Model the fold of this input.
Amino acid sequence: MKCIIRSVKPYWFYLICEHQKTIEVGKNHPKEWMNIPVYLYCTKDINSFNQIPLEDREGYRKYLGMIGACFIPDTMEMIPVPIPHDKYFSDILLKTCLTEEQINSYGKNYQFLVGWNIDKLITIENPKSITDFYKHGFDTFNAFYTPVDTSDWKLTSPPQSWYRACY
Done:
């Protein structure tokens, strides 16, 4: 099954799983994205992890370096840089859990940033390893429907931002 794997820092992962952050901001997105599952890889950034409230840290520790949540985007927001001062973009800003300064700084060399709308999030109780996923284009059967060796197709490292994969 086609999917997208997106890396997020632990604090953002926490806010997403707690339904506080409902828009994840990026500099670009795949051409094909609508109705394709997006799996969230929680990075191992300890400084970010330490921003999670102390009482919640142990519950989120198991997600470090793992894929721990999934959503299927049905819309994306185009966020102009600098971000305008109006009600619509003020609401978007709240959903990103970012400040105007953070958005403008992150997108300083871009006309637009992309807001991935996170709806119908599923938290994965038993997080998955990146090696549970395969490179984009992987098919377990060749043209003659015989099983193929999967070892060369397994993912070995997380994306810097996002990439296409198969599950």
